[in-house]
Amino acid sequence: MKIRTFVVLAIFASLLSFAKFSHCENTGWATPDQYIHACYSDLPSLFEARGLSTNQWPYASADNSVEYPVLTGVVMYATSFAANSPATYFNVNVFFLVLLFLATVLIVRRIRPEFAYLLPIAPAMIASLFINWDLWAITTMLLAIYWFDRKQFLNSALILGVSISTKFLPIFLLIPIVFILWRDSKIKEAIKYCSITFGIWILINAPFVITTPTGWWRFYKLNLERGADWGSVWLALQQLGINLTNLNWLSILLLLIALTTIMVLLFELQYTPSLASVSFFVLAAVMLASKVYSPQYVLWLTPLAVIALTNTKDLHALWLWQATEVMYHLAIWQHIAQVTDAKFGLGPIPYAILTLVRIGGTIYLMAILARRALQARNTHSRLLDLLFEGSKAYP
To answer: End-to-end CA distance of the chain, in Å?
Structure first.
């Protein structure tokens, strides 16, 4: 498919997503209406809640700073000068998010051209485009993956540091990055890569740490102290009557188990995988163990899942997973609608069940991709040898 086809698909997807959110814009994002119609967005909500309507510096307050890493805060702050209402603030940010979505689609096209068309037509992707500012970090993360697999390590490390300063999730990609470089006997390159990435992160964050340390720390403090939150397996278990203690330690333990399992499997490989082929598994595992699964997290996983595809016979797994994500997308808003005293909504038990269905859909997609990788190399007999072979090396 030609570039202009992807551009058209991305623009069409953006228009569909904008139409989905337009009801809330027309009604001023009133509660619980914005949940009933599944068009809630953090963009207008935080415009006034975090003082952006008065152009307040996003990290000035220890108690009301924006709950995001610094580059996202800078974007929120900069765009506030072009807006005089929640609606205009929403539209200004949507303009940039559409450009980022277009860039994301084109990057995925460079990495996995035969399946890239799936990204702009993925329904869960379309439903979630304008919930938050995540696309700023997703686009830079995909650039880091693309450059890394093309052996442009300096560019990759620099942009990964930027991505981590925008949203923290990409930091987990350092695990497969270090493994891949170690497997290729590039220990010095691995040290250099990590040093550059953390150096960029420190360089970007240092001014905020020095000038507004408590406001800068709020993002990390909230995540450390967060309880069982929306979309997590922990909240689902609580809603089903399974109350676990020491939740922070349990989530950390599950995360360590998941990441350790991935590392063990990587060490079982008899070849060096590409970063593109393992990224979906890493971030999916992190999100499965997390204390929260925000609706926009599907924006992170969908491009990586598309990259991981190798065979059209596995499309059913992708579409099944997308179906569970769409069901969850509707479920969380209807559940919050009930919590915010709507006349109707979704109760905690069915919401918990649909949360577990979404988690099951993610695990199923991971399993199908692993099985396909096993079948792709009939010279190997063990699933462990091929679990993460989601795509062949490129350029």
So the answer is: 17
Cα separation, 379 vs 93, whole angstroms: 50
Q: Based on the structure, what is the number of domains in the chain?
A: 1
pLDDT in tens, 16-53: 999 999 999 999 999 999 999 999 999 999 999 999 99
What does the block give as tokens for 310?
A: 């190798």
User: How large is the angle between the packed helices 187-211 and 213-225, nearest 10 degrees?
Assistant: 120
The pLDDT value recorded for residue 82 is: 96
Write out pLDDT tens, residues 285-303. 999 999 999 999 999 999 9
DSSP 59: T
Tens of pLDDT, residue by residue over 322-345, are 999 999 999 999 999 999 989 889
Classify residue 272 by its DSSP letter. Answer: P
- Which residues constitute the domain of residue 58? 3-386
392 located within any domain: no
For the segment 338-372, what is each residue's pLDDT rounded down to a tens digit?
A: 999 898 899 999 999 999 999 999 999 988 887 77
Residue 84 within a domain: yes
pLDDT of residue 268: 67
**Ramachandran region, residue 26 (left: φ > 0; alpha: ψ -120 to 50; beta: rest):** alpha
Q: Is the pLDDT of residue 382 over 60?
A: no
Show the tokens assigned to 128: 């979630």
Q: How far apart are CA 167 and CA 176, in angstroms?
A: 18
Nearest-10 Cα torsion for 99, 102, 104, 107: -120
- Classify residue 303: in a domain, yes or no: yes
Cis bond upstream, residue 170 (ω within 30):
no
What single-letter DSSP state applies at residue 130? T
| Count of CA atoms in the C-beta half-sphere (13 A) of 116 | 22
Angle, alpha carbons 327-329-335 (nearest 5°): 95
In a domain, 192, yes or no: yes
Residue 379 has pLDDT above 80, yes or no: no
Q: Please report the DSSP string for 342-395 in residue order.
A: -SS---HHHHHHHHHHHHHHHHHHHHHHHHHHHHH-TT---HHHHTT--S----
Which SS3 state, helix, strand or coil, does residue 155 take? helix
